[in-house]
Each structure stands twice: as structure tokens, then as C-alpha cells.
Amino acid sequence: MTTILEVKGLAKSFHANTVLHDIDLDLQPGTTTAVVGSSGCGKTTLLRLIAGFEAPDDGTITIDGRQVASPESAVAPHRRGVGYVAQDGALFPHLTVGQNIGYGLRGTARGEVRARVSELLESVSLDASYASRRPHQLSGGQQQRVALARALARHPVLMLLDEPFSALDTGLRASTRKTVADLLTNAGVTTLLVTHDQEEAMSIADQVAVMRDGRFTQVGSPQQVYRHPIDRFTAEFLGDCISLPCTVASGVADCALGRIPVQGSTADGPATLVLRPEQLVATVVSDSERLDRVGTVIAADFLGHDVLLTIDPAGDTPPIIVRQHSLNPPPIDAKVRIEVLGNGVVLT
Amino acid sequence: MVAPPVSRPTAAVSRYDKTSRPGPLVTTTVAILVAATLIPLGYVAWAAVSVGWTRAYDLVVRPRVGELLFNTVALVVITVPLCVVVGVGVAWLVERTDLPGRGFWRPLFVAPLAVPAFVNSYAWVGVIPSLHGLWAGVLVSTLSYFPFMYLPVAATLRRLDPAVEESARALGSDSAGVFFRVVLPQLRLAILGGGLLIGVHLLAEFGAFAMLRFDTFTVAIFQQFQVTFDGAAGSMLAGVLVLLCLVLLVAEALARGRARFARIGSGVPRTATPIRLGRNMLPAQVGLAALTVFALGVPVWTILRWLWIGGADVWVLDDIASALGQTIGLATVAAALTTVLAFPVAWVAVRSSGVLARLVEGANYVTSSLPGIVTALALVTVTIHLARPLYQGVALIVFAYVLLFMPRALVNVRAGLAQVPPSLEEASRSLGSSPTATFLRVTLRLTAPAAAAGASLVFVAVATELTATLLLAPTGTRTLSMRFWSLSSELDYAAAAPYALVLVVLAIPVTLVLFRQSTKVAAL
To answer: What is the span of the domain harbouring residue A164?
Structure first.
């Protein structure tokens, strides 16, 4: 199988302000990759470079075996065979939904276009009667789906999605995300999506690339980047972290919560142990059970299905936050024992 | 005369620098246009240099120039503040109080723009034949130009966030305090913009003041031109006029400073609660009615009266038809050409941030403020010395119209282009359309309404233009305004009335366009 998108050593700067440094990225056929990072980190620029709206200063972009951009030459956007869905959908306001979807099908017979439009509308779960509506008569989620259908009409080898769900409100976002993810998977279109929403990235993608200040800090499967972050930024960007000072000896970290096995090979000596809050479980212990490592609950924040417990461990370790289900949580001032599930990650 | 506010330099979008760098065709067109807009200033500079220092000094420092300077400065200094008072007062009454019938009043105070100032003078001279001099000039120009103040101020008043005024109320200000301490400061930009526009019109107007026997620089330059044609005295007067104009521009720029008012916070502002006029209701109603009578009633009544007096005899139909035909022909060609040429300029202004964009805006800003007579004189001189065959040709007068009225098309086309998000063009590109196809299928299509509005503004401006037309029109040209002017100069007021009526009727639809634009919040 060939790589659909191959990005090598890509760099771009605007007015002496370097936005992307030495980006490498490969996309395998039929997979979805999410580039996630905070706003201004360069992820949209990466997408615009691949789409052809900007030209790189350095590095190459190869789509389906054809080099489309290098510092010397660039293929124009309309000759790249790439689908692009902008943040707000960018539907043409002067055309109907049907005309929007048929925009890229110039030169196709009229009847064929109509059939294709209906087919595409159906594939994004919209009734064929929507074809005669105007973009402003659609909800945000519907506009986004029409934009996707429009981009799919030309059978692109690569689909680029620029924060496609960020303009939608929370409820709509989850459902639209699901529809789009299923659709793209079924159509087998290789997709590159940029987002600032970690949860969105991990739920939709086969491969997640975490970006910071124009560089990828880590690229891997959602599980890999979440469970085994390679640096503190990646760890904290993808979710809450509990960091504890520890001493590592032969694959086991000794810290305030006990001896915890760590992932991978780590040099022995003092280090920082990183755990996810859901790895910790606090259970109430009776006063008689005077064991080691018993902490005191000093605050409990009720969040609906979860409760956040702030626990003061004995000794001079700072308080630890434990997130667990909210059924019968330990009361404040209760003595609890913290158990750790799974392995920890050691960062230096 | 109908005119949009003068365009002004703004910061351009800088993000899309590389892909949207203008191509050679656009760059060349724009560069030629910029060079052309510099002709009037170049002419004045050239004239000053070629006349020589001592002669120029003699021509400028003489009692006649002093008299003109006094008249012109007094006119501006009295009329502009009067327009501020009238324009802001009317806008505030209509937009912010419980005055009944605001839907009726709103368009009524834009309507005076449909009456060219020289028709207004003709109307007032018809009512009071002895009317002349400075105060006559102030009266007629205030009535003709206060809508230039009313329009932007009313639009700004509608946009102001009432929450700010409510906060001022809660902090202890009464109605008057809120107006002077909170509302008026926020209107500053609108007032300065409107004031500049009125000042520029006052400097440029010829017909209205000539009819009132009130000598301003423009009137004197025109008379000088008729006597000596390409004379040094005329060009020196033009030089002083250009200086006055630059003084206005600089004064406005200094007064404006770096002020930018933005509404802080998000969401759509609520409409303000109308202020109760109470006992002041009657005076307010009477004042607005009186203004309407003076600004609209007098011209309409005079035109109708002369038509009544003239009867069927004044309707020389083939003469009117030929004047109408020529006017529509010239105005259509000029409007179409100006709008087409406005596209590359607007494109550069909106989509790129280079030196060219700033140069375009700056050049346009200055030249658009120069009186038409300076542009006309410059073109006469340049063609006589450098391109004799063009002199008194149709091409030259159309070119003059393009220079004079480019900003009207540009303001609209630029606003239209700015409202086409680059993301739409990118979507089109990613769907396989080439840049040219994208321009035709998306950009042009979405900009069309704005371009049409711009073209119609240029159309009416050309149709009612008098000064440059009189100077540059080929022999035998008889436009509506030229016919009106020659008949009313012969004091044949009845025969001039049909032409005045046709001029006003031509301008009405475009005035409505202008009114609709200003009521749309996003416009301008």
C-alpha cells in the first residue's frame, strides 16, 4: 500500500515569524489522522499548505505519489484532487445546496449531476429535497454536512477538514462528528483533520499528531499518545495529569502512592511519575486500619457523573486530585487509601 | 449631488500574502490608475514651477485672491458647523426619540441629495430673486449638504450599544449629560467624516455659487478659464484651492487622531429605548417640518411653479430627449468603465498589504478630495501640451469622470469584495475551479450587487456633473446639466425647469440606494 500523503521537512514562515518547523507526516490509505494543538500553533497553516493555498518555504508534500509542493514549484489547489472543508463550511451563499454540491462537477451531464447530488445528500443523512434550499436555511450542522458532500463529490484522494465541528454547539458537535467519522470511514477516504479539541481528535482518529509551536511533539495512535506521552507538554495537553516525584529502580517507581510499575525502559534514579486521574481509586479505610499511605479527603467537587476528590496524602507530598464515579464518594475528612491501576509514565 | 463618504486608507488583511499577490495585469492596471490620479497634483506643481517664484507670488498675493480666500474660508467655517448642528440634531431626533413617523422622516432627510446644489440655488433664486453673496451660499449649501452629515451620524447612532448609555444613566447623568458625554464622543468619527465630505464639496462647487453671484475659488477659476483659457492666473488660483483642500484633509486627519471606536462585548445590541420628547415634541416636529420645506419643498415648488408658468412651450421634446440621450450615454459609459476599473484597485486594497495597496489608497484619497475643476484644468493643460488630438474628445471627458468618481465605485466594490470571505474562493479552488473560473463563478457573482450600487452612484454623479463637463465636453455636447445651466444663465428659468425636473427624477432611485445602504448596518 502506498502512502496517500507524505509530508517531509515542511517549513513555513510569515514575515520572519516561523509558523512550521520541519514537519514530517505520513498518512496511510483509508485512515483518519488528527492534528491537535492549541490555537496559533500552526496546524491550520499545515492544512493550507497541503491544500495549496500557501506555498512552503522548505520541504515537500507528496499526494498519492505525486509531488505537489516544494520550495521551487507548487501545483495549483484546483489541480491537487484534494477535498477541503473549512471551519464554517464556506458554502456559496448565491447557490442552492444542490448547486453547491454540484459545483465541482462541471462538464458532467445534468441528469448525472442531479443523481450524484441526491446520492451525496443521502450519504450525509440529508433528504434529497434539501437540494433546492439555500445555505442560510440550514442549521450549522447541516451546512457542515453539505460542505462535506460538496468536497466528496469529486472523489478526492485526500480529505482535509479544518476544525470542522468547532462552530457547532456541544450537542450537535458530538452527533455531527459521529456522522462524519462513519461516512469517511465507509467511503474509505483518507482524512486529515485539524482540531484544538483533544477529545475530538482521539475519538475520531486512527493517528493523532500533537503540535506545539509549529512542531509535532508526538505522532501515534490515540492510545499511544494518551497513555505513553513522550513529554510533559503532550501529557498535559491530552488530559489531566498527576505528577509525583519518584525514584525509579528496575522498572518500578517508588512514590507517595507506593511502588508503581512504569512503562518501557527507564533509567534508574530520581524522576517524575505521571498518572492519569482515572488510574487512581480512593477507598475509605476504617480508623482501625492504620496502614501506610493513608490520605485525608480535604475537598470533594461534585460534577454529575464524576466526583473530583482532593486528597492530602500523609507526609510532605502536595494534595492529589482523584477523579472517580460519583456514587457514594468518600465524605470530607474521611481517611482513604489510594490505589493505582495500570502503569505509570516516567518523564524526566 | 449624490456622493458616498470619501474613502480612506485602512489596514489591509495581511494573512494571505503569498497566494493572492496580484498578477501582472492587475498590477499594471492599478499602477496606471495611480499614475493618472496623480495628474491633477502634478499639474498644480508643474504650473507653480513653470510660472516662476516672483510671478507666482504676484499672482497669489493680490486683493482679489484675498477676497476669494475670505469668501471660501468663511463659507467652509460657517457651513460645516451648521451642517453638524442640523445633521446631528435631525439624526438624533429621528433615531433616538419617540418622534412619531420615523419611517417617514428617515428617507426624507436623505432626499435632498437627489437635488443637485445648482438646482437648489436656482430654486432659491426663483423664490427670492435678490438672494446673493456669502449668506445665500451658506443657506443653499447647508440645505444641500446636511444629508452628508445626517447619513453617517444616523447610521452610527443606530449601531451604538444602548448598554453604554444605560450605564451612563446609572452613573448619574441626565439626558443632556448622556448626549454630550457619551453619545457625541462616539459620533466623532462620523461627524469628522461627514464634515470633511461637506468641506470638499464646498470647495468644489461651482454652479450653485455662480448662480448666487458668490465668488469662491472654484467660481473664480472657472471665470478665469473662460477669459484666458490656459492662463497662469487660473492655475495659481487652482494651486491655492488645492492647498485649502489639503489643509482640510490634514485638519480632519489630525482631529481624528488614532481614534477607533469599537463596541466591546459580543452579541447583537438591543435597540435603544426612545427618549420621551414630552413638551419638546411640538418644537421638534415644527423644526423638522421647516427643514423639509426649505430643503425639499422650495426646489420642488419652484420647479413645478416654473413648469406651470412655462406651460407646454417649455417642453421642447426633441431637445430634452437629445440631452437625456447624451447624458444617459455618457453616464452609462463612465459608470461601466469606472466600475470595471474599480475591481483591480479594490482587489489590491482588500487582498494585499504591500506598498502598492497603500499607495493606491493614499492616492485615491487625496485625488478624490480635489475639486473637479482642478482635475478638469489639469486634463485640459496636459492634453493641449502632450496629446492634442485627445482634447475636446469624448474619451477625455470619460477619463475625467473616471478620475473624479472612482472613489464612489471603489467604496462599494471594495466593501463588496471585503464581504466575500477568502474561504469561499479557496473552497472553489479545492473543488477544481481555476483562479479565473473562481473569480467569475464566485467572487464576481457575490460582488455584483455592490458593484451595481457603485455604478449607479457614478451614473448619477456624472449625470449631474456640471463643472468638468462644461470645461471638457466636446463641442456640440448638450447634457441635461449643460442645457439647464445655459438656459438658467440666460435667466430663462421656465425653460430650464424641465431639465431640472429630469435631473432630479434621474437621481431619486440612486438616492434610495444610498439610503438603503446606510440603513444596513454592515454597509460602508
So the answer is: 5-236
